[in-house]
C-alpha cells in the first residue's frame, strides 16, 4: 500500500504529543495516511491493520473515532485511509463515518444511513456519531489500557459512563445536529470554542491554492491529535479527580445519619468537588429527603463553611437558604442574631455561611433546618 508516514515537524504538535501517555503518543505519531487503494495481497493476521474514513471536509467525530480505535489492541497504530471509493472501503479492516453501514462484527461504524438509531444506552438517548459508536464498542478497553486496569474493574465501567456524559455525548449531538436545549429561541451569543468547532477550523481554507490530498491528510492528522489529546485529558481527569471525589461524597452521604437524625446535613471529611456528585448520587440512591446543607472546612482559613445545596446543578436558587435574619450579618452581630457563638458570616443570598468551628457550623445548619 502506498502510504506517507507523517513526520512531526510542527512544534505545537510535538508539544501536544508530550502530554499524552506513551501508548497514545506512539499511536498518534505512527499514523500513516493514504488516498490510494490498500495492498490487495493476502497477509498474515499479524499485519498492520487499516482503518478508513472519508476524504474531503472532516469533522470531530471521525477524527476522534480514528484516534480512539487506534488505541485498541486490534487496531493498534493502524494505518488510516481517507477515501469515498466503495471498493477501497470494502477492503479495509474498519470503516468510520462513511459507507452507509453499521455492523460492529465487521467494524463498520457509519451513522448516516436511513434507519440508524443507535444510542449509547445507560440512560442516554442521544443518537451516536462515529465517535460514539467506536466509544460504545471499544471505550472500556481504551480506558482500562490507558489506566492500566483490568477491563472488568468496577471503576472502568463508572468512568466509561462518566466520560461519555462529559465528553463524547456532546460530539455525538453536535455532529447529528441535536440542540442542547429544547427551545425555538435563537441563542443569545455565538460559541465557537467547543472541540467540534475547533476541529472544523482545521479544515483547509477555501482560499488556499493548495487543496491537495496530502495537505488535507496533514490537516486531518492535526484534528486527530487535537481531539485525541483532549479525550485522554478527560480520561485522566476523571480517573485522578472525578472518581476520588465521587468516592468521598458517597462515603459522606452514607454516614449523614450520624451527623443529624434528619439526614439532611452532610459533612465532607475532606474537601473535594462535591456538587455534581451529590446530585447524581441522590438520584442513583433515591435519597429522600434530599440534602439541604453541606459542611466542609476551608483549607486556607481553617474555618468551617455551611453551604446550602442548590435546587439543581445549574441553579443559583438553594433548596433551603440560610435564614433571612442571618443574611448579610458578620461576626458578633451574626452570633447574637443566631444565638450561635463563633459565627463569621452569612452571604446576602443565604447560600453559604461560616463559623470558626465545626460545632458552630453544625449548629448553624441544624438551626437553619428548624427556622
Automatic annotation (TrEMBL):
<protein>
    <submittedName>
        <fullName>UPF0160 protein-like</fullName>
    </submittedName>
</protein>
<dbReference type="GO" id="GO:0005634">
    <property type="term" value="C:nucleus"/>
</dbReference>
<dbReference type="InterPro" id="IPR003226">
    <property type="entry name" value="MYG1_exonuclease"/>
</dbReference>
<dbReference type="GO" id="GO:0005737">
    <property type="term" value="C:cytoplasm"/>
</dbReference>
<comment type="similarity">
    <text>Belongs to the MYG1 family.</text>
</comment>
<dbReference type="Pfam" id="PF03690">
    <property type="entry name" value="MYG1_exonuc"/>
</dbReference>
Amino acid at each position: 500500500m502506498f502510504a506517507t508516514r507523517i513526520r512531526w515537524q510542527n512544534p505545537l504538535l510535538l508539544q501536544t504529543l508530550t502530554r499524552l501517555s506513551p501508548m497514545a503518543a506512539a499511536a498518534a505519531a505512527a499514523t500513516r495516511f493514504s488516498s490510494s487503494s490498500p495492498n490487495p495481497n493476502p497477509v498474515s493476521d499479524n499485519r498492520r491493520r487499516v482503518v478508513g474514513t472519508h476524504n474531503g471536509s472532516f469533522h470531530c467525530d471521525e477524527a476522534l473515532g480514528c484516534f480512539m480505535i487506534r488505541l485498541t489492541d486490534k487496531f493498534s497504530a493502524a494505518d488510516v485511509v481517507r477515501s469515498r471509493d466503495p471498493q477501497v472501503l470494502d477492503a479495509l479492516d474498519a470503516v468510520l463515518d462513511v459507507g452507509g453501514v453499521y455492523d460492529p462484527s465487521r467494524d463498520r461504524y457509519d451513522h448516516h444511513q436511513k434507519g440508524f438509531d443507535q444510542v449509547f444506552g445507560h440512560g442516554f438517548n442521544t443518537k451516536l456519531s462515529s465517535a460514539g459508536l467506536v466509544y460504545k464498542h471499544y471505550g472500556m478497553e481504551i480506558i482500562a489500557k490507558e489506566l492500566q486496569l483490568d477491563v472488568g474493574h468496577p471503576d472502568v465501567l463508572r468512568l466509561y459512563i462518566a466520560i461519555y456524559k462529559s465528553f463524547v455525548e456532546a460530539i455525538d449531538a453536535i455532529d447529528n445536529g441535536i440542540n442542547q436545549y429544547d427551545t425555538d429561541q435563537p441563542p443569545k451569543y455565538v460559541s465557537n470554542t467547543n472541540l467540534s468547532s475547533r476541529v472544523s477550523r482545521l479544515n483547509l481554507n477555501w482560499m488556499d491554492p493548495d487543496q491537495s490530498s496530502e495537505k488535507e491528510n496533514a490537516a486531518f492528522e492535526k484534528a486527530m491529535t487535537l481531539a485525541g489529546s483532549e479525550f485522554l485529558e478527560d480520561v485522566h481527569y476523571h480517573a485522578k479527580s472525578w472518581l476520588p471525589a465521587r468516592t468521598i461524597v458517597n462515603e459522606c452521604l452514607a454516614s449523614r445519619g450520624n451527623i443529624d437524625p434528619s439526614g439532611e446535613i452532610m459533612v465532607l471529611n475532606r474537601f473535594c468537588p462535591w456538587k455534581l456528585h451529590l446530585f447524581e448520587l441522590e438520584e442513583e440512591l433515591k435519597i429522600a429527603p434530599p440534602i439541604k446543607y453541606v459542611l466542609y472546612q476551608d483549607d486556607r482559613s481553617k474555618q468551617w463553611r455551611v453551604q446550602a445545596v442548590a435546587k439543581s446543578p445549574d441553579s443559583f436558587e438553594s433548596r433551603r437558604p440560610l435564614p433571612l435574619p442571618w443574611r448579610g450579618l458578620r461576626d458578633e452581630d451574626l452570633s447574637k442574631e443566631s444565638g450561635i457563638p463563633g459565627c463569621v458570616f452569612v452571604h446576602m443570598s443565604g447560600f453559604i455561611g461560616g463559623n470558626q468551628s465545626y460545632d458552630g457550623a453544625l449548629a448553624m445548619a441544624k438551626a437553619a433546618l428548624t427556622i
